[in-house]
Structures are given as structure tokens and as C-alpha cells.
Amino acid sequence: MTFLGIDLGTSGIRLLLVDENGQPIGATERAYHAAHPHPGWSEQNPADWIFALEQAIDELRDHYPQFSALRGIGVAGHMHGATLLDHAGNPLRHCILWNDTRSHVQAARLDAQDQVRAISGNIVFPGFTAPKLEWVRENEPEIYAKIAKVLLPAAYLNFYLTGDYVADMSDSAGTSWLDVGNREWSGILLDAGNMNADQMPRLVEGTEEAGRLRSTLLDKWRLKGPVSVAGGAGDNAAAACGIGAQDEGQGFVSLGTSGVLLSARDGYHPAPETALHTFCHAIPGRWYQMGVMLSATDSLNWLARITGQKPVELATELDGTLQKPGSVRFLPYLSGERTPHNDAEIRGSFTGLSTETSRADLTQAVLEGVAFGLRDSFEALVATNAKLDHLIAIGGGSASRYWIELIATALGVPLSLPKSGEFGAALGAARLGMTAATGAAPDNVMTIPDVRETVEPNQALHPAFEDAYQSFRAAYPAIKNCQ
Are 261 and 374 in contact, with CB atoms under 8 Å apart? Predict the structure, then answer.
């Protein structure tokens, strides 16, 4: 038997084929683009996802004979996107993505309504799904009137695979329509957003079978079947499955375009006032909380663009030995910020510049600013009594050992680096497909990867980083007042 994990990302789709032991057989990727027709807008054509998926399937089938033994599929996807379908299941417009901020007015209005935070467990952020639908209702009434179903991106792929409107709990928790504690659609939240239950997909747990691969795809992909399709997961819940973060005390820090600090929780512990996200896990009876910063490696990529360097070239200008915090301070709010500020309008800054400031000083400041932004999320999680004694580091930025030691020192906890191989959202999705197809217990499937190195905090420099972090925190009110 083999199992397929599909990671539907913002910039492309990744497919991973694994064997019955969860070991990778082969993988492939296809890219696509987002459209930005107006400032703050971000959209994608769902047809591009399907085209990319079919191309990737063709490659896996043609290159790996084991594909013919496929028995389970799991889909992970970028969260919060609004894919609007008519009664025939056809998209009415391009999907409005998670990083689209046009609905900030509608989000604030929903967030202020009675019981919304209490039931959803979260602030209504502009990127969430419910305010997007309010924007469509107010600005595109002719489209709004035709909406039969609203699907998140991963749920849209599930619909393509199975022909059924079905979504998992973890992804649905980011809509502001789900009662996150009780894991069901909330009539109160749907009423607040002028939606109704008939427009929602059927809910399943991420490890459950959502349906079977439809017969036309069995024929097209040259499969005998049956092939189970799991409920799947939002991308971060899937990443947690991929690195085995399912119990209290297990978590990770992800250094991608955005930065994520995630902690698995055995119970439901909402704290919307902290701007933490509190979502259902893809595993039944579990939840997770995460802090999100919008510009992590994107901050280094920005500095690389304006200096004409590659990010790795900037990082190698630092000598490899962790240095005490520099005199230049960077606030990494290039696209606004979520945790802990919930401020879509704030922007970044450098302070402490002088005629002696070098490019390496700017790089050091950027790496430190991102680390302190993650520390903000760490402090918010600790305030909810999350146990964070140790974290796994993943994402492209984790390739910089200097950055990892810096973050470990800023957080005051060791960070483990997995051995090379698959351990992200695609693996997590494949694991969900395996549990759905075989009925295996999640504890036996969602295992922790082998670790190649654990990076300890630099105790000698910890006091200096603590002082620098307090200075970082004090800078936010000042820059906010200036802007």
C-alpha cells in the first residue's frame, strides 16, 4: 500500500508519496501564482490548483510504479481562503486568500459582536473567511446571491477528489463560523456573518475518511481502488502531524515566509485577547495554539532584494558565532502583524542607524527582530499555561544555524533540527491519509522525526538578549504613535 500527501500552498502544490511505513517514495511540485488586482488584495483561480495537481499526479504515476498501490490521500491547504461555489459546484470568482486584507472593516465589525470571540475562541482577523464573505455581500451582491457553498482551499480539493462537500475541523476553525470548543458549526456565528448552515461543508475529523476517490479519477489515474480521502488539515495542523506534535508539550517553530510558533494542547484554552490562534487539531479531541508573525524569512528576503544579495549571502556575512545583540533594532512588521498586536496597518522600521552601520549590522538586526517577534508569540503561549520546554525547528530559515541559536537564546528553550528528509505538511497529510485508509491509531502514525542536532540557548548571552527583547517590546508603542 502507498499513501499520498498533498500540500496545497500559496505559491505551489507539493505531492509526497509514502509507503506503508510512512517512508518517502517520491515527491514533486508545481508552481502557480496569486493575483493582486488592487493593494491589499490576494486571489487565486481554483482551476490553477486542479491543473497543477493533475500535472503532479501524472509525474508521480509515470515515475513511481508504487503509485498504482495507492490506498489513501490526505490534503493540507493554506487556511482561511474563500472559494465560492454555485449550485453546480462551479467557482463564482477567484478564491480570496488568507493574506488578503480588503475585509479589515468587516472583520472589526464582526469581532465586536457579542459572543463571537467567546464561541470562535479567536479574534476575527481580516484574513479569516467570515469577513471575506461580508465583503462580498457588500461589494459583489450579484455573486453573493448565487453562493451555494463556501469551501476552504483544501476542502475544494477534497470536493474535486470525492465529489462531496466536506471539510476537517482544523481548517474550519479558521473561518470564524466554527464553535472551536465543541467542534461544530455555530448558528450564532453563521447568523452574525449572514450565512446559513446549508452553505457549509460537512465536518469530519482530519483522520477520518471524508470520502472515496471518485470513479472518474480512479480511471484517469489508472488506479484499481478503493482510495480513501481523509478529512485532511489546515497547513499548520498538517505540519504538526508531520513532526509528531500532537500532545501537550510538543510544538514547533517554523521559519517560513511567515513565522509560526505552535503548541499542541490536550484541551481547549482560548485566549483571543493575546491574538493567539486557538484551533482544532487534525487529531480528534486535541487542539493547538499558535502565534503568527507575518514577515519571518520574508524580512530577510526583503533585505536581500534591496541590497542586491541572496539571503544566504547575507547570513554568511555573520561569522557563525552568535554575537550579543547589536545597536541597530529592526521591527519586522513589513506586512503588519498578528500576534500579539493584531495590527494590519503597522509597518517595520530600523532604529539605531549610524554612519558606521554596515550591511552585516542590518542583517543581524533583521535576524534578531524576527527572533524577538517569535518571542512575543512565546510569551503569549506561556500566558495560557502552554508547556514549552523544547521545540522542533522547521522551515527554510532553519537552515541557518546562527539564526536557530539566536532564536533558542531569545526564547530560552532548546531547538531540535530534524534529520534531512520529509517532515512538513505534505508528510502530515500523507499520515492523515494513512489513518483514514487503515484505521491506524494516530499515536502510532504521527511520530516524532529523528533529530540530527539540538541547539541549546547560549546561556552567557541570554541576559543581553533579554535586555534587547525588552527594548524591542518598548519600541512598538513608539513606532505606532509615529505612524
Answer: yes
Q: How many CB atoms lie within 10 A of CB 454?
A: 13
Q: Which residue has the cell 532548546?
A: 414
Residues 8 and 135 grouped into a single domain = yes
Q: CA 49, CA 13: separation in Å to the nearest integer? A: 7
Domain extent for 213: 2-236
Last residue of a domain, one of 236, 256, 280: 236
The pTM score is 0.91
Strand 2-8 relative to strand 70-77, pairing = parallel
Q: How many CB atoms lie within 10 A of CB 198?
A: 8
Tens of pLDDT along 353-378? 999 999 999 999 999 999 999 999 99
Catalytic (active-site) positions: 235
Residue 80 grid cell: 482561511
For 151: left if phi > 0, alpha if psi spans -120 to 50, otherwise beta; the answer is beta
Angle at 196 between CA 190 and CA 197, to 5 degrees: 95
Within a domain: 118: yes
Could you give the dihedral angle defined by the CA atoms of residues 151, 157, 163 and 168, in that order, rounded to the nearest 10 degrees?
Answer: -60
